[in-house]
Amino acid sequence: MKAIRLPEPRKPIPNLSVSDNQGLLQWISSVDHKQIGIMYLWLSVLFLVAAGCEILLVRIQLAIPNNHFLDPEVYNQLFTMHGTTMIFFVAMPAIFGFNTYLVPLMIGANDMAYPRLNAFSFWMTFFGGLLLYFSFLAGGAPDAGWFNYAPLNQYNYSSSPGVDYYCSGLLIAGIGTVTASANFVVTILKYRVNSMNLKQMPLFVWMILINSFLILAAFPSLNAALVMLLLDRQLHAHFFSAQGGGSAILWQHLFWLFGHPEVYIVILPVFGIFSEVFPVYSRKPIFGYTFIIGSGMAIALLAFGVWVHHMFATGLGNTVNSFFAASSMLIGIPTGVKIFNWLATMHGGAIRFKVSMMFAIAFLIEFTIGGLTGISFTLVPIDWQLTDTYYVVAHLHFVFIGGTLFGLFSGLFYWFPKMSGRILDEKLSKWFFWLFVLGFNTTFLVQHALGAMGMARRVYTYPNLPGWGALNLISTIGGFTMAIAIGLLVFIIIKALKTGKKATKDPWDANTLEWTTSSPPDFKNFDFVIPVKSTRPFRDLKRPEDADWKKTDNNG
Amino acid sequence: MIQLLYLSAINKTQSIFDSASPQAEKINRLGYGFLMAATGVLLLVVVLTVYITIKFRSKANTSEPRQITGNRKLEIIMVGFPMILVIVFFFWSLNVMNAVNPDRGSQKPDVVITGHQWWWEAVYPGSTAITANEIHLPTGRKLLLQLNSADVIHDWWVPSFGAKMDMIPGMDNFLWVTIDKPGIYEGTCSEFCGEQHAWMRIMVVAQPPAAYNKWLLVHTDKATIPIDSLARKGKALFMSASCSSCHSIQGTLATGMEGPNLTHFASQQTMLSGMMDNNPENVEKWLSDPQKIKPGAHMPRFIFSKDSVRAITAYLTQLK
Fold it and tell me: Which residues have C-beta within 8 Å of that of residue A224, sequence separation ≥ 6?
């Protein structure tokens, strides 16, 4: 089968004398999916540094009992901004950065379906984040926690404009998120290279497709809640105020109907990343391709039936609680079983310990811990003891860091040569890996114990009870270790961009289409796309005698 | 008498493992069961990960491995085994859930606890006793607590007693607890409730029924009448300055409902929801500048002279 040529006018527009290197202006005005993807990633790094500084201040405050380093009001703003930023302006843009950069490349397309909508999505996220942070100058950042419960979010209880900025910022960023997802759906369904059918799509692309539907269904609930809250605060509506006949608990329903799918929204793409990384560094195909797609779909569907597990302690009654306990346990199965898919992928392979793979392997263990503590909340009576304590804080960080962030790091180290055309310093990167893993576990393992010992979350200080001071100090030390590691990572990236070794187009001996084009790809991704006859078209090309499409049954 | 009980308090713990009620004990047993299963799963993953990564690491002479894409049987086991675990734990937790939180029928609550920013109020139905922050409960009897909120969402959690329960404005929530043995049990508000969420700590004084009834009787009494002149001056100030418009002291003109009831203030061990010990020095500090001690608290700063502060302190500290 012959390669497919992608036709495009090769002559420049006549009588146009514009230099093709416009510096910053070129980035700002870009509609190229690669530049937008990279801008998403830098945006995420920027906010990671902001949210990281916020939490370091928080950890200093908590390092010793009865500390007076921060005022309670400042403390509450900082932890609220940390959570909000990490979810909406670090995790989401980082994922969208990879999606935007990689989806067209992996399906053999030259750009997204709607390039200008793509730029619009990015700038909405950018300005949404900026607006949220403007609150610091406008009289106070939001201070009611990232899930911003009613009626604490009402004007009577939070009279600084912070919560208004929270609503507007997230609403604007949320519009960008929804438009980006619509763009992904159309791109994936309509812009695949002709010869690639759905069953030959890379798993990363599959996960983005599922994820985009998840976003399209989940974000309306958040956006509606934000508008209702803005009406409450600005026009004295009373959707969420009990005194005015509204319902405090309604906010929780609307928020978690978005909020729990959101947890899967930031983990499914990462499952996609791992499903690319494990096979490449094990030199084996993914174990259970269909199974992984199926469980991804199962997660996406079940994700809308589990939100009440955030509300087991609100007194909804045993009947409601047992329904949501069952659904929450069920969703744990497709999520957890994937761990064994990846283990089976490595089994019998030839594993290369590149930093990307090291993060993937570390993820298997860290995410299992986070997953198991997650399951403990589905046992309602255990949830009644442990919800809203530091045990939850530990759990969610094991999921968001041990899961999402490890996945993003794995993806970063895997695709960096493609994106930049440079190789990251392997030795320094390994230092980064070990430092980060050490810092992460030091910070959060002890927090499980703190929760069981009775420490509630979101307290600006605590009495000097036995063990509390020591465990919190350990946690703070771990936090600073992670901060040093992140500093090292930024240094490694900048060093590679400035003086790094040039990367070849296929440094990892990979399988998918993005590695068939130059590193970094030209403005036009592909002139030719190699034939796609299996999930690993590039490997088929490199090893024609062992091509996947020649085998009928690959089950071992 | 009550002071003596404090001194002899045996346990002052608040870990979920120090259960002091059958409800907490049931949850604990489920917790240990889960911990064992979870440790098993974690060990399996860790052992497999370590074994596979060591055994199958690439060496210089490694040839292309066998390209295996799946195994139906293994996939069925991968789903089937956790499914069995899920079913077992689902029914176990259902069982515990119904034991800890049975239907309350027409049972009346033994105590009504209301969360305020940032203190607790306890009202005992059938008695005129009202207390703040230190909540006395009898041991050996299955108690029904009614939980309410006066402003934002709070959450009642005493780890030794078991479950926590949100206090939501506009809703009546309930919690069962049977306290096994007397003692002081600590807990904390577990739903973020604003600026001073950290200092909304719970102290429950669990007493044997006889001692409890005695306590309840004492606390239905009106406030003691000050004898010495300083305390009398303090009482007059309390009534004429705005204190009385937010605080109640039974038997006096002070009937405010915003702040904690102070009728038996001096019988309490701590003040400001567990933030400080209750002693004249701390009361003086607090009265001099509440916003400095507990920023955000709803008590404004009154510009009292030093003498006035001392007088009010003298009045408050004799309200046994």
Answer: A254
